[in-house]
Amino acid sequence: MSKLRQVSKLWPCSERSVVPELVSGVPIVSTVLLLNGYDIDGTLTAGVVPQEPYIVITGRGPDEDDAYVETLRQNAQVFMRPASWPATSEGKGEFKSVIISVMGVTHFWENDPIQVDIIRADTSAQVTLVPATPQ
Hints:
By secondary structure, the chain is α/β, with parallel strands linked by helices. 27% of the residues lie in helices and 30% in strands.
């Protein structure tokens, strides 16, 4: 009988997909952990409902911390753009790309097409463009 080993490729997570692999002739069950990520403005504020497990990555700066962000922190880890990163779409997209890569986010929801392009170019995460909501 073959030995099975479980290898975690990403962290953190609670939902898993099992993918069989062979390494040196030994069957391995590879656990791919899923972690969702969400932008705030134009995404969560537009009514996108986050799916567990998730984190929030926002282009908001430290001076934009408010009661809504505090509410989000009750259920998820929130990453806010430091003042040292530019408050441009490009700067925000680059910041989010770094956090997505470091945290192992597998699916990210974003409403800014410029940021979506940067995140898609810089990470392996699936990125969903959230359409603008009519005013």
